[in-house]
Amino acid sequence: TLLVVPFALHALRALLPARTAVLGTLALLIVPFLPLAVSTPQALANTFALVVVLALLARDVPTAALAAGAALVSQPMTGIIAAAIVVATLAWRWFRVASIAVAIIGAAAIPLAFAIASHVVPQIDVRVVFDPGSAAGRLTGAMRDALTFTAVDFSTADVLAIARLLLPLFWIALAIIGMLARPSLQPDDNRSLFRAKWRTGNDVLGIGPCIALVAAALVAATVTIPTQLGEEQSQFPLRLIQLAALLAMPLAGIGLGTFLDRMRGTLPQLATAVAFAVAATFTLLLAYPRDDAQARSGLWSVSASDMVAVRAIAADARDAPYVVLANQMLGAAAIQEFGFRPSHLVCTDPSPQSQIPDFAKATSGMCNLKSEILSFPLPAGGPIARYFWEFVTAATPSREPVDAAMNLVGANRAYVIIHDYWRNAARLAEQTAAIADGELASLPHLRLFRFERARITPSPQ
Fold first, then answer.
1. CB neighbours of 370 closer than 8 A, spacing ≥ 6?
2. 99 and 191 part of one domain
């Protein structure tokens, strides 16, 4: 956020009086913070995309082009959107039909990129099929889940779940105020790179959000990733919706600046200040991992406990092959400690010999497509991670996901780790202890269980 503050102030100052522009910059305090806060290429690309929009509004085309290139390198999906914004915005000056065409092509390029990637890199399991019915079903389910609250184990911290629903409405309201306020701006040609006639509703401020929203709809209707859990299928459309919200920051800034600048009276100003402070606080808190009665988050950082756990597993397993079912941050700790080892060779090519375990197919010459996977739960959408979430989200944990993970890699031993930062950690740990073959003692802030079984010795059929 600090990176975009000067760009935001400069861009708003190009459109608004100084006082209104400064007040509008406060919109950064309630900008959807999570897509910028996580230390991932996606968050970095989102930051660059926001810089693209702000630089264009400030008439700084070279900076916008550089930021679009940086976004493309950081995360191609966001980078394509950023590049389309630059081209479409510049085309708006001369030929608006061309600008609209560029925007449509930019949005359509996202599912096309998924299709190309799945053919160029066979290991990427992505299916691009137009299926709006499934997309509508996932959208309906997501809306139902978002609007459903449980009274079981409800605490004051769960107020964040309510704030998570209200803050987007607040953001949209500010953007609408910004759209309504634009007719009064009417910058002269010397201050506006694009000579925009702010009386029209289809100008440069709406290009970015529109491209991102159309791309989100197309991805939701066409892209399916079989290796992901059902609840994770919407993550790419959700990322694009979050990007659209970020790209609406100039509109929200105009709306907030205009609203605050026209505020008169001590009591209304005090009430507005309190409401804004509460909204900014909730925005910041929502950027942190959540594990309340309404939501589960896996965005915890690697801890000293994770490092202790991976060392304990290595010491206990010695030279025996094993697989670990845990939160993905344990995988990050393992990479830091051991590198990309231990790993297992598995078959990723569909085979009619479905009764033969993947590891056996990979080592017996019956598989055309092989890949290595870590013993730990990385990547987040990989099979080991999916088995872990299947284990912990079941009403009653069973050995089936653990056995499936061992069968996948051909290991006799598996470890399941329950961190104490999960709200239901105590109950889940006791249920796991009842079906595990053993437990490693004296580990801080987590419980580590061992599962074993006889060696698999399949015979081809």
1. 345, 346, 347, 348, 349, 362
2. yes
The CA-atom distances, in angstroms, between 71 and each of 65, 118, 291, 368, 373 are 10, 21, 31, 36, 28
Q: Minimal CA–CA distance to 332: which of 297, 371, 306, 296?
A: 306
Helix, strand, coil share of the chain (percent; to 5): 60, 10, 35
Model pTM? 0.67
- Report residue 264 CA to chain centroid gap: 40
**Domain around 139:** 5-285
What confidence score (pLDDT) does residue 345 get?
63
**Total number of domains constituting the chain:** 2
Q: Are 33 and 287 in contact (CB under 8 A)?
A: yes
Domain boundary among 255, 285, 315: 285
Please report, to the nearest 10 degrees, the dihedral formed by the alpha carbons of residues 211, 216, 219, 221 taken in order.
-120
What the block records as the tokens of 222 is: 């066409």
Confidence of residue 292 (pLDDT cuts 50, 70, 90): low
Interatomic CA distance for residues 417 and 413, integer angstroms = 13
Determine the 3-state secondary structure of 253 from DSSP.
Answer: helix
Element spanning 142, H or E = helix 132-146
pLDDT digits (tens, 9 = 90+) for 39-54: 678 888 888 998 898 8
User: Mean pLDDT, to the nearest integer, of 357-381?
Assistant: 62
Long-range contacts for 153-159 (Cβ within 8 Å, ≥24 apart)? Answer: 153/293, 153/423, 154/293, 155/292, 155/293, 157/292, 158/292, 158/293, 158/294
Q: Please say whether the beta carbons of 229 and 157 come within 8 A.
A: no
Structure token pair of residue 165 = 């629903």
Residues 150 and 280 both lie in one domain:
yes
The H or E element containing residue 218 is helix 207-222
Say if CB 246 and CB 31 are below 8 A apart.
yes
Q: Are 51 and 4 in contact (CB under 8 A)?
A: yes
Mean pLDDT for 249-259 is 87
Strands 322-325 and 413-419: parallel
d(CA 324, CA 420): 17
User: What values do phi and psi take at 224, rounded to 5?
Assistant: -130, 135
Phi and psi at residue 268, to the nearest 5°: -60, -40
Separation of alpha carbons 336 and 401, rounded Å: 26
291 found inside a domain: no
Q: Report pLDDT for 450.
A: 93
Please indicate, yes or no, whether residues 195 and 269 belong to a single structural domain of this protein. Answer: yes
Q: In degrees, to the nearest 5, what angle opens at C-alpha 20 toward C-alphas 17 and 24?
A: 130
- Whether residues 280 and 327 fall in one domain: no
